[in-house]
Amino acid sequence: MAKRKQQAEKTGSCTNKPGKPTRAAKQRRTLESASDYARATKKPEALANYSDPKQLSAVLPSSMSIKDLTKAELKEACAALYAKILRTKQGRRQWGRRLKSEPFRLSDSQKMLFANSYKAACNEGRPMDYVRLSNSCHFTAFLHNPDVLASKEGEVLEELKEALVEQRKLDAGMRMKTSTELEEELTSVHVLHEEQIAEMEGKVKMLEQRLADSEKVTEGLRSQLALSREANIDTKRRTVVERQRFVSRCEEGLKTREDSLLKKEMELKNKFEELSTQSAQLHDQQAELQQQACNQDDERHRLERQIALKEQMERRHQQDITREQDEKVEWQRQQRAIVKEMERLVVELEDQKYWNGYAPAIDAWRRRWEVEQEMRKAAQAALEATRQNETEMNNRIARLDLIQASYEACGSTEHCIAQFAEQNANPKYDDITTTKKQRNFAARIMKRIHYARGIELEEDLHEFGETRNHLCHDRNGTGLDTISHERFQSLCRKIKSIITSM
Questions:
Q1: Which residue intervals make up region (Disordered) (predicted)?
Q2: Four-residue CA torsion sign, 128, 134, 136, 140
Q3: Alpha carbon 365 to chain centroid distance?
């Protein structure tokens, strides 16, 4: 670089800057690079045609893929690709330009980087990391496009294979065809081209002759068509009167048939209206029967659940009674054993007192026995009180479960009525600000649909409101026992089914 700068300063003009290369320096640099290229590659410039094609199979089989090569052959292919790029450039600094229509075309340097990365990955036995390669500074056009860069793998590998084939052909001593041989081939191609042109001209003349013959035939056909049209007009004139008579007869027949069809249509319409009214009545009856069946099923399921709950409570009560009896029998047996043992001890102590004289320990044992008897009676009384408390607690739990079910049924029914009122009420005319007004609105709607069922629903809603107020606003807590919770729950289910059916 220093020599080039000195030569540029000697040959350049005085107006040029010291660090800027002159035009002459650029030309010399190009010539020097071309001479370096000529010294580095003393091989033919192009390898398109070879004089001995029989030796091509000895270089590299066509069925072999680049992935079948060994690591050494892959290294040789990378070197061959670099040599091919140098031969293609022919001493120029760059070869070709990337167009706007092909933004993802690989340059020669990018191909070499891609081939070297592929070689390194094969040597390490790992796949190519296209994400890292696309984010590097050498592949700026492929930024955030690793899939596009991965699609270029086949192209680069194919060029590697071609470069290896060409390099092996060069190493095998194959030569390029001379200019005289190429000129002979060009003259033969020109002769063949002239023969093909003459043949095509003969075909054109033959087609022109056929076209003239076809025009003559069309003229004859046109004359025949004119004659046939004149004959057709004559026949049409003769058949117009007959056609008019036939049309009049057909119209009369159609009118009579249309009248009969209209009469039949009216009869069918009347029958259809009668059948539609009957089907509507049957549909209403079917809906009522289905509703009754659903209500009966709900009532049956409720009774079954109540019966199952009662049976479960009876079983639990019976189990508690049997367990208490067993515990009582076991406790009595233990007490009898204790009393028997105490009596035996008393007898032994009396015997000892009789035979050994008075002993002060006898009175202490007697007092201890009396204390244990009192403790036993107190424990028995506490056990009885605990059992009584347990039964009372079980009864209270069952009562609270029943009350909770009533509260849940009341809340779900009120929610159903409020939802129905919000969906069907008109804010301008209907007042649904309170729960009582919502119940009255639902009763009015049911009266419009079916008056008798509306009266029944109004009575049920009135009973529901009174029971609900008695249930929710009982401050003393004494009114909860006076309510029939089973009847109230069945009433809630009935009201919900009617509201949902509307």
A1: 1-48
A2: positive
A3: 86
**What's the pLDDT tens digit per position in 470-493?**
777 765 555 566 677 888 888 888
Indicate yes or no: pTM above 0.70. Answer: no
In angstroms, rounded to a whole number, what is the distance separating the alpha carbons of residues 40 and 217?
75
State how far Cα 79 lies from the chain centre: 51
CA–CA dist 367, 374 (Å, integer): 11
CA dihedral 348, 353, 359, 364 (to 10 degrees): 40
Give the sign of the dihedral formed by CA 119, CA 124, CA 128, CA 133. negative
- Long-range contact set of residues 411-418: C-beta below 8 Å, sequence gap at least 24: 412/492, 412/496, 413/464, 413/492, 413/495, 413/496, 414/468, 416/495, 416/496, 416/499, 416/500, 417/442, 417/495, 417/499
**CB of 170 within 8 A of CB of 129?**
no
Task: Report the candidate in 486, 299, 498 with the shortest Cα–Cα distance to residue 413.
Answer: 498
Domain boundaries, the chain: 1-29, 41-95+103-177, 359-501
Token pair in block for residue 394: 């079980």
Q: State the Cα–Cα distance between residues 166 and 156, nearest whole angstrom.
A: 15
Which residues does 192 contact at the CB level (< 8 Å), separation at least 6?
Answer: none
Which among 307, 297, 316 is positioned nearest to 393, based on CA atoms?
316
Q: pLDDT digits over 274-304, tens only? A: 888 888 888 888 888 888 888 888 888 888 8
Q: Which residue, chain included where needed, has tokens 């190429």?
A: 182
Place of tokens 């590697």: 160
